[in-house]
Amino acid sequence: MRLIVVWIVALTLLAVISVGWYTSNMIFNTITVSNLLGLAVDGPAFNVVKLLGYVNIAWGPIFCLLVLFWAVTYPSERDIYSY
User: Could you state, in chain order, the average pLDDT of each consecutive group of 10 residues for the chain (83 residues)?
Assistant: First the structure.
């Protein structure tokens, strides 16, 4: 039973993370491209925008990997309430 609940929660979290990541990528890329084209951004400001772009690209897959790691390792832990 614990295995089923863990995987249902994991799949729900993966769906929510994937939708949030996809949506934030579209919004963030639209904002940054319009700002970078509208302004002559260079130097430190450009580097910060690029860094935020890389973080925005990476956060979804990183959280998905953490959820999968949790889903694989958590059911194997000993449950103190089971006999």
Answer: 88 95 89 70 71 87 94 78 62
Spatial contact of 36 and 49, defined as CB atoms under 8 Å apart: yes
Burial 29-38 (b: 16+ CB within 10 A, else e): eeebeeebee
Contact 35/41 with Cβ under 8 angstroms?
yes
Tokens of 66: 């953490």
Q: Which two tokens stand for residue 74?
A: 């958590």
List the beta strands (DSSP E) in the chain.
none
* Distance in angstroms (rounded) separating the CA atoms of residues 6 and 70: 9
